[in-house]
Write a structure and sequence with these properties.
Blueprint (H helix, E strand, L loop, with lengths): L4 H13 L2 H7 L4 H15 L4 E4 L2 E4 L1 H23 L9 E5 H17 L7 E5 L1 H9 L5 E4 L8 E15 L16 H6 L1 E5 L4 H14 L3 E6 L2 H9 L5 E4 H10 L3 E2 L8 E9 L6 H11 L4
Parallel strand pairs: 3-4, 3-5, 7-8
Antiparallel strand pairs: 1-2, 5-11, 6-9, 6-10, 6-11
């Protein structure tokens, strides 16, 4: 077998970065060594993998065909290395969306630690779209996300449900417009809302749950995480639709109030995602089992 993992590593790094210089930096090689490895790979496969456009290297059809296979082979090699570096298997890489990563996953990992888990996991926290992309690119072993998965090569497993509620500051003007103890739809339509960024699972959930009822959400501001939104809501900047578990602390302190409405229950599904061709080490199976158990 003439192909080497180093050649595939260089190929993936160049595909991700768009140049041999940046790809060489990513794998700690000189540019000449990276170029030589890439040229040798193309020579052995008897195809060109990139279109050369100026100084940029763009994947062509052959390169796009090879990329997922190369990622899978490198991931398998990483699993082999990891399982012999730790007594109970290698480090598990988790990609979690923001709400899950901050409010749910720490409890699961703490329970695992209390039960004697050895190798600590590596956790990356980003929005649902980025977390799914990391799993699809074999940059994470599995993911926990809050919204629909748009990566066709991933296995998607319903995980658990989450409740969202509408909150605001106690003295927000909408609290003076309650009818029979509830905020009327007209008041919600006229209010300004604090929203998450595109690609967020919470943003997708808010759109799918509220837009059919309110048709339009007037934005007061847009934030990159739910923590910023809940504090902005407590400051009186606008209404927010957030998971109950995110706002429980400020509700208990009286800095936020829940707005009862006539809207249908606001619930969404969380998902566990992983690559279809992913090999499951003992460490990975243990973490997956812990996540599938009731987390709280």
């Amino acid at each position: 077998m003439r192909l080497s993992l180093k050649q595939l590593q260089v190929f993936v790094a160049v595909a991700d970065s768009g140049s041999t210089a940046a790809g060489a930096d990513a794998v700690a090689l000189s540019q000449s060594a990276a170029s030589a490895a890439l040229n040798e790979l193309e020579r052995q496969l008897r195809v060109q993998l990139f279109d050369r456009v100026g100084k940029k290297l763009l994947l062509n059809d052959s390169g796009r065909q090879l990329l997922p296979q190369a990622r899978q082979m490198l991931d398998a090699a990483l699993q082999i290395e990891g399982q012999f570096q730790h007594a109970h298997g290698g480090m598990v890489r988790i990609a979690a969306s923001t709400t899950i990563g901050i409010y749910l996953l720490p409890h699961i990992l703490a329970r695992m630690q209390a039960e004697g888990a050895s190798a600590p996991p590596s956790v990356r926290i980003e929005n649902s779209m980025a977390a799914a992309a990391a799993v699809a690119a074999y940059q994470a072993d599995f993911g926990l996300i809050e919204g629909p998965c748009r990566e066709p090569e991933l296995l998607v497993e319903p995980w658990q449900e989450d409740e969202l509620i509408i909150v605001c500051a106690p003295r927000h003007p909408v609290t003076r417009r309650l009818r029979d103890g509830k905020a009327p739809v007209a008041a919600l339509e006229q209010a300004r809302w604090l929203l998450r960024e595109a690609g967020s699972g919470t943003a997708d959930a808010v759109d799918s749950l509220l837009l059919p009822q309110l048709h339009h959400l007037r934005a007061a501001a847009q934030f990159g995480n739910s923590e910023a939104i809940k504090h902005a809501a407590a400051a009186g900047l606008g209404l927010a639709c957030l998971p109950r578990l995110v706002v429980a602390d400020l509700l208990a302190l009286g800095r936020l109030v829940e707005l009862p409405t006539d809207l249908p229950p606001l619930r969404r599904q969380f998902y566990l995602i992983r690559q279809r061709g992913k090999s499951l080490s003992r460490s990975l199976e243990a973490v997956l089992d812990a996540c599938r158990a009731r987390p709280l």
